[in-house]
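Dear colleagues,

As part of the handover before I leave the project, I'm documenting each prediction I ran so the next person doesn't have to rerun anything. This entry is a single chain, and its sequence is reproduced below.
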Amino acid sequence: MKAKPNIPGERANRDVDRAIDRNLSEGAEQAALVFGESLEVAYRHTGCHPATGSTDYAHEMDIPGLRSWPLSRYRYWSSNQ
């Protein structure tokens, strides 16, 4: 099976950048690196198994086909923080 590409939206990319920046600003370079690696693993997983993940945000944000996959080791930083 060929993996489908993950195409994060502008807001998703901004949230990822903010999470990494926050780790770096707190001197947690290793945490930023592990976060990035975990995100890549999640992208590969959802690319190979596109039907996995929650559709909760798809309904909430009115974006058909959107799926979310949690990175359980990491706290979510919303773009409001």
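Residues 59 and 66 are 8 Å apart (CA to CA). The radius of gyration is 13 Å.

All the best with the project,
I.
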